[in-house]
Amino acid sequence: MITKSRYSNFKVQSLRGRLLISATLILIGFLGTAGIALHNAFHDSAEAALRDRLLGHIYALLGAANEDRQGRMLLPKTLPDERFSNPESGLYALVAENTGNMRWRTPSLAGLPENFLQIQKPGQQTWQYWHTNNRDLLTLSFGIAWEDYQGRETHYTFAVAADMAPLINEIQGFRNTLWAWLGGLAGILLLVQAIILHYWVLKPLRVVAEDLRKIEQGDAECLDGTYPEELRGLTNNLNTLIGNAHTKQQRYRNSLDDLAHSLKTPLAILNNSLQEHTDMDALKELVQEQVQRMNNIVQHQLRRAVTLGPGILGRAIPVAPVLERLMNSLKKVYQDKPIITTLNLTSDTKFFGDEADLFEVLGNITDNAFKYSSKQVRVTVKSAPDVPSPHNHKMGLLFWVEDDGPGIQIAYITEIMQRGSRLDETIPGQGLGLAVAQDIVASYGGGIEISSSRLGGTRVLIRWPHP
Question: How many Å apart are CA 396 and CA 310, to the nearest integer?
């Protein structure tokens, strides 16, 4: 019994081997069938030619027959074919009356039996194979009617026989030549097939393997060659897989940066609280609140590292409590700056999505506003029909976060949206806040715009559609 592991050893692992085996089997089947058909056709043709010659000998004998004085048939002594006169020449003839009386035989029949003649009625003929004295003969018996001068009709049977050895040798020679040519042709065709497979048919697979090797060595980022139609599905899927791997790797890197950036605010709050010598109960409550917040941040960033974008279904989250918590936390972080905060929104304004995403975006934007403002930060939120959801017809939200700081020149807006980019190195930070917010809002199908504020500083507009 062959086990599964042993059976796998019998499998042909090479495409070239499979194609060559398939081509060999097809070629052998085709040439074998063609060879058998040609051999049978030649055999039938050669035998038919022999039958025609035997029938011709019958007609030649009839043509050479004479009459005696009574009008009876008289066959000549000189025969139309010399082989009839030579003993064991391979060509023999008999003439007998249908009554059984033997009338004539050729000299070539000397020493051979004469029982190959089969009595036939006039106009009838019969073929048969006859074996005698280690010889195979093909015989033809042909019946005729001969009328003498008195009008009496005598029935005769003419029989001729030919040795089949020359025919067999001819067929054997043809068969040997045929199979020799077909075998040589098969070898040449298989060689040509192997060359074509190696240098043309399988070349695209080698190109794909070489391109993949370049990607592994870092010399290329994707499969960008021109491939046959049958390989385009494979190469496109590989490019998609490679792109997803790069995207996932970059997302993990960004998530680590985002995690570090997100933990900065609660850590700053804890640090400031310790420096303020807050009473133990208040400190304990603050620590629990910020630890819970950091735990939520970690879980949120881990979830975002695995999944990209929001879900289709989102929970309705009131925006006002989130903003109030943010403002209270940031006031503790920036307690050395007398900042006046203004919130313009209705209490029933709701966000449909992940609360952690909302907290992350608003936290980063308002943190920048506090960081660069002089004494005033204003946040405005309202529903807007021009920010439709990609999945339903609910209105989206518009967020305006404004400050009275130094502002941002238009020429630097694109630059500060890049991950890790900072214009003012004197102020602490990693340059990730805007990039993180932009990534989250973009995953919802929205966008962020930066312009000048009426307060004199920067205005950040967030167009946030519902998920």
Answer: 14
